[in-house]
Amino acid sequence: MTQPAQTAQTAPRAGKPVNILGLSAYYHDSAACLVRDGVIIAAAQEERFTRKKHDAAFPKSAVDYCLREGGITMAEVDYVAFYEKPFVKFDRLLHSYLACAPAGIRSFLMAIPVWIKEKIWMKSELREVLNFEGPIIFPEHHESHAASAFFPSPYPEAAFLTVDGVGEWTTTSYGTGTGNRIEMLGELHFPHSLGLLYSAFTYFTGFRVNSGEYKLMGLAPYGEPKYRDLILRELVDLKEDGSFKLNMKYFDYAVGLTMTNDRFAALFGRPARRAETKLTQDDMDIARSIQDVTEEIMFRMARHVRKQTGMRDLVLAGGVALNCVANGRILREGIFDRIWIQPAAGDAGGALGAALFVWHQYLEQPRKADGVKDSQRGSYLGPEFSREEIRTFLEAEKAPFREVSDADIPEVIADLIGSEKVIGWFEGRMEFGPRALGGRSIIGDARSPKMQEVMNLKIKFRESFRPFAPSVLRERVSDYFDLKEESPYMLLVAPVAKSIRKEMSAEQQKLFGLHKLLCLRSTLPAVTHVDYSARVQTVTEDHSPLYYRTIKKFEERHGCPVIINTSFNVRGEPIVGSPADAYRCFMRTNMDILIVGNFLLEKKDQKPLDKDIDWLKEFELD
Question: Which domain holds residue 447?
């Protein structure tokens, strides 16, 4: 059991707002956030500014943005909160290398000098980089995850479950949140990690670790769980309460340079797939098998947490909480009455959790939760651009455009969607977290049989098997999906309603692998995965007024309250952050329309970009 990281020495100064800067950095998905008197003012990942996907560097640009959004300088920041304890993490690294010596010497020689030179002196580093002399608080990694899950949630009290690769020592934790406090009740420790197990299979099937886990999840429905029993027999000793131990003789991640080893390859009778080579049915079967095992582990954990805490509601965070298929199963099993998942569930969200931990637990400030609305504000916490800023950019680019009023945008865009145009949608504040939620999205007609292939291959430049998500009006979600609850952050997978399904013929049912893509499974084929599921985003006027009104107008004019929503980027590139990013992505893909703020651009009117720019070389194809 983990005790709170610190106890407040002094209360906030009366009458003066308390500004807390939260940070996560130096592993992947660095981020910054600003919390003022418990209210989330701003939050963003560094990658959106530097254009380096999963950027792990100190989030200087994200910090600068948060301060600008808050209208303050560093001199007005009262506390800095860093999302983990570097000394404890260093302790884990040393113990791991010593326990396995002399194995891992190459990894040791690569990692330790960086730690000795920089990372264990984090407090001094932060003071120097930020020019900050005030208090710096270091919650534990999983305390930051738990805080990010509970404190913004709508629940006055709830159980929490945090699952990821590894923080300092902890890989999984559970406990309770009540009022303004979280309490850890149980943990699993490194090297036994569900996140690292899933990443090992991500690596083995040829995808990039800490990036390709979404691909593995999307590939799973094309396979059969033929290796499920093998995994549970040889790799994972799983207990009834969801705790487990990994058979480390098959893994190299503890001290090596790869996730798996030759024994792992021998167990599956094949080497790891090389990146960018053809996917085989065996890859799909492996993906399905580890997805099934992951869901079973998460299900058992959730059931144990309910039994131990007696709480009726559950909040989730940590990288594994982005596995929306597993989340959907927990919800459907009815273990908890309600589930809330931190939209920036990975390490980026640790910055937010650390800041909220300082406000509520360190400074002992009260928390309001009405049981209905969360305080994440739709996760629209990033930069927004004024009409004049956008106009100035477009005029500088000499890009032909027409201006559309707020009142006319819904009708104009609804009809463009209805004519099967692919639209880059850039509106309002940027989302915090890995999902595009209608701020930086590519949208299209979910009814179109050709839209999934067109958007994957000609717009996103990615694998054809990748599914797209539906954005649906909140009040209509149950008409199209087996889901009654809200899913504003696109973190729940639900079955497509039987009323809109198209049943497979006997011949179609014999199809396997990617051939399954050839079949239309519902009246919304572009968002229906091959297992009749969809990763649902429910849209309300409260959080996304213009996006909501556009979908509503699409329903009025074309009879459907559902559209495609995928992130506004191409493969290997972060989601766009600025009008310049959006214009560049629009011009270098086969998108038909760009709507950026109140300005509409048609591709046919634009002057082509420089032909001697081989733009694909600019992106790291992962």
Answer: 387-618
User: In terms of DSSP H, where are the helices of 324-425?
Assistant: 324-333, 347-357, 387-396, 409-418
Q: pLDDT tens-digit profile of 249-301?
A: 999 988 777 899 999 999 999 999 999 899 999 999 999 999 999 999 999 99
| DSSP at 251 | B
Q: Helix crossing, 324-333 with 281-309: angle to 10°?
A: 50
Q: Which of 537, 517, 514, 539 is nearest to 529 (CA)?
A: 517
**544 lies in a domain?**
yes
> What span, in angstroms and rounded, lies between the C-alpha atoms of 189 and 606?
55
**Cα 561 from Cα 107, distance rounded (Å):** 52
Are 357 and 408 in the same domain? Answer: no
Dist. CA 568–CA 459, nearest whole Å: 10
Contacts of 462 (CB under 8 A, 6+ apart): 456, 570, 571
Do 135 and 48 have their domain in common?
yes
Produce one character per residue of 481-516: b if its CB has 16 or more CB atoms within 10 Å, e if not.
bbbebbbbbbbbbbbbbeebeeeeeeeeeeeebbeb
CA gyration radius for the chain? 24
The answer for residues whose C-beta is within 8 angstroms of residue 115's C-beta and 6 or more apart is 90, 93
Q: What is the pTM of this model?
A: 0.92
Closest by Cα among 13, 31, 3 to 355: 31
